[in-house]
Amino acid sequence: MDIQRIAEEIDACQRSGKEMDKVTISYPSLSVEEAYAIQKGCVQHAIDRGDQLTGWKMGLTSRAKQVSMGVKEPIYGRLTQSMELTEPVLHLEGLIHPRVEPELAFVLKKELGGGEVTPRDVWAATECVLPAIEVIDSRYKNFSFTLVDVIADNASSSKFIVGDQGFSPYTTAWDEVGVSMMKNGEVVQTGAGAAVLGHPVRSVVELVKMLNRDGISIQPGSVVLTGAVTDAVSVSEGDRIAVQFDQLGSLRFRVQA
Ligand code: 0L1
Ligand code: MG
Hints:
Order of helices and strands: HHHEHEEEHEHEEEHEEEE
Structural class: alpha+beta
Oligomer: single chain
Number of domains: 1
Mean pLDDT: 97
Bound molecules: hexanedioic acid, magnesium ion
Largest sheet: 7 strands, mixed
């Protein structure tokens, strides 16, 4: 199997918004390790073009999503500078079938690594927590894939937006934060932080442990999207998305061609 060739193909689809067949159609025995190597290769292409690694995302963090994929642990993906929306507008160019999901983002102030990390270590390394919305988009036809396919496709990473206001990690029970997502003025999803592995801090713990297996630590200044608080919702041109995060305020954007 040519990891670099597959990474090039996925990278081209991530840039152009062109759909592709699942990698496992050609390589049914693709392993988790090989899939992460493909993911790394794809993101390296973006970095070679001038993009920067700015953080990490966790996916498959809800029990329901893990059961539906037949897995017992989450997956991670890589976030780059060009994925972050700096204006409240999602442009559809380069996207295939985007879906949005509310998340809580941790921003780190200290390096975090190792296989024995605890929630207390995460709190000590966290600068602030921010409301966030992730836009996921699979490069595979019909948003259909196996676990290793989606790992190779950077865990469906596409775009994300975080709030302007960061909050102290210590003064909020993040598992109890209620979230309500509206599309075009109607509530379409509700949930609470506990949907993310019981508590979003556990998602960061899991990420650190998974990265440690690959010899990676999280660098200061990195953003970590901890996982979806509700099911993802499809968006198309003209939609207006607003997410209310209990006492933390709201985050919104509109979708344009
Ligand atoms: O961010 C996510 O939870 C997505 C993980 C990959 C699975 C999917 O695309 O639904
Ligand atoms: Mg997500």
